[in-house]
Amino acid sequence: MKKIITASLALGLAATAAQAAWDKNRLKPLSDDKKAKIEAALPAKALAKPKSARRILIFYRCETFVHSSIVAGNYAMQELGKKTGAFTADLADEYSVFSKANLKQYDAILFNNTTSLALENDAQREAILGFIGGGKGVAGIHAASDNFYKWKAGARMIGGQFNGHPWGSGGTWSFKLDDPKHILNRAFKGGGFWHKDEIYQYKPETYAGSGELRVLVSLDLNKPQTMKPLDRNAGLKKQYTEGGRTVPVSWIRTFEGGRVFYTNLGHNESTYWNPAVLQHYLDGLQYALGDLKADATPSSKINRKEVLAPAAP
Question: In which domain, by residue range, is 154 found?
Answer without folding.
Answer: 2-301
